[in-house]
Amino acid sequence: MTSAAKIAGVACLAGLMLAAIAGMAARQPTPSNIAETPSRSAPAIASDQLARCRTLTMPDAGCEAAWEAERRRFFRDEKR
Asked: Residue 75: how many CA atoms within 13 Å on its side-chain side?
């Protein structure tokens, strides 16, 4: 095989790969096509709040309330 044929073969293969990638990218949803994400659940929000509170070194009323709510949730009364 001549060098010109090899170059042409590589160019064709590269073109096919680029076309495949472009086709896959065209099928990806864009942010305007995506429906609104559902609101996050309360445990997920509380988890984020507790993660923020772990890094604080000074007292914070919001963090104390979040930790108390987590304690109540964790140690809930099973008799009910």
From this structure: 5
Provide the whole-model pTM.
0.40
Cα 30 from Cα 25, distance rounded (Å):
10
- pLDDT tens digits, one per residue of 13-70: 999 888 888 777 666 555 554 455 555 566 666 788 888 888 888 888 888 988 888 8
Max Cα–Cα distance, the chain, nearest Å: 84
Token pair of 69 as six digits = 């709510």
Mapped onto helix, strand or coil, the DSSP state of residue 75 is: coil
Which is nearest to 46 in space by CA: 73, 13, 16, 23? 73
